[in-house]
TrEMBL record:
Catalytically driven reaction(s): hydrogencarbonate + H(+) = CO2 + H2O
SUPFAM superfamilies according to UniProt: beta-carbonic anhydrase, cab
EC number: 4.2.1.1
Entry cofactors: Zn(2+)
MF (Gene Ontology): carbonate dehydratase activity; metal ion binding
Zinc among keywords: yes
Name of the featured protein: carbonic anhydrase
Cofactor annotation remark: Binds 1 zinc ion per subunit.
Upper classification of the organism: Archaea, Methanobacteriati, Methanobacteriota, Stenosarchaea group, Halobacteria
């Protein structure tokens, strides 16, 4: 057996022993407080970043590029895995979680600036990001390094995903939509692993966000205002 698989099964046995009595109220349904849309990067610890160890609290969605859209015959719509908890479990908070050094944003940036391509499945995911990121790439200051450009575009991508959710007729108006960036690469001031609020219901101005939300003013941070 693969050594890693054996280790995972062993760790799961410990998990099962610790959580055996924590599903009693969840076996017949769920009502998560929030849906989080995270990049599936292995460095992004989707529940641990929130200190969450409570089954049923977070509906965690992961994909490369923390996308909220999928293509259908009718065009682009909010992805079903993101929409499900909002439409069927009463969840009224959606949090889009980008992260520093995002590989999907990097691939999209490279595709837009150098015409690079990848395997078809990855290319499909990048193609879902490309239309939204193209204006951002064009608006980047000329003196941006590649690393800084990617981290600026991480914010820009989060903004676009927030915009998709807010513009969709399938997402009720009373759902709060937040955009954050999880930083493990020193792209923001503060500790590695901190989540930085960059967008709340379409508001991107840090001063306005701090004024309106003083209780989390120290968690508001942006690299790029445009």
């Amino acid at each position: 057996m693969h050594e890693t698989l054996a280790d995972l099964l062993s760790r799961n046995a410990d998990h099962a022993a610790a959580y055996a009595d924590r599903f009693d109220d969840l076996q017949d349904g769920q009502a998560p407080d929030a849906v989080t849309v995270c990049c599936s990067d292995s460095r992004v610890l989707q529940d641990a970043m929130w200190g969450n160890d409570e089954p049923g609290r977070l509906f965690s969605v992961g994909n490369i590029g923390n996308r909220v859209v999928q293509r259908t015959d009718e065009g682009e719509v909010v992805s079903g895995d993101v929409l499900y908890p909002v439409a069927h479990t009463g969840t009224d908070l959606a949090v889009v979680v980008g992260h520093s050094g995002c590989g999907a944003v990097t691939a999209t940036y490279d595709a837009l600036t150098g015409g690079l391509s990848d395997a078809p499945g990855i290319e499909h995911c990048v193609s879902l990001l490309r239309p939204g990121l193209k204006p951002g790439v064009e608006a980047l200051p000329d003196d941006r390094s590649r690393e800084d450009a990617v981290n600026d575009l991480v914010e820009y991508n989060v903004d676009r995903q927030v915009e998709h959710l807010r513009d969709s007729d399938d997402v009720p108006d009373d759902v709060t939509v937040a955009g954050v960036v999880y930083d493990f690469a020193d792209a923001y001031p503060g500790e590695r692993g901190e989540v930085h609020l960059v967008n709340l219901d379409g508001e991107r101005d840090p001063d306005a966000l701090r004024a309106a939300n003083p209780e989390v003013a120290d968690r508001v941070s942006r690299r790029w205002t445009y």
